[in-house]
Amino acid sequence: MTLQEAAKIIGYNGGNRLFVKNMVSALNMCAWQNTAEQWQRLEAGEKILNNWSAYLTECQTYRNRKITE
To answer: Which residues contact 7 (CB under 8 A, 6 or more apart)?
Structure first.
């Protein structure tokens, strides 16, 4: 999974690391009950947490594209 795919799944709301961290914690808590969509969100959340500064840059790039369109 690329960072762009992970950002698309989680959203381009950069700046709120606690939100992503809590989501990953909750999805890990009862992992055996996760659906395929929840596993994908968990993978995306972990990718974003491991690459936080790149995620913030991706969010800023996304917002700049939206403004210029």
So the answer is: 44, 48, 55, 58, 59, 62
Q: How far apart are CA 60 and CA 14, in angstroms?
A: 8
**pTM value?**
0.86
Sign of the dihedral defined by the CA atoms of residues 34, 51, 23, 56, in that order: negative
* Inter-residue contact 24 to 45 (CB < 8 Å): yes
At residue 23, the pLDDT reads: 94
Are the C-beta atoms of residues 63 and 55 closer than 8 Å to each other? no
DSSP state of 51: T
The predicted pLDDT at position 27 comes to: 95
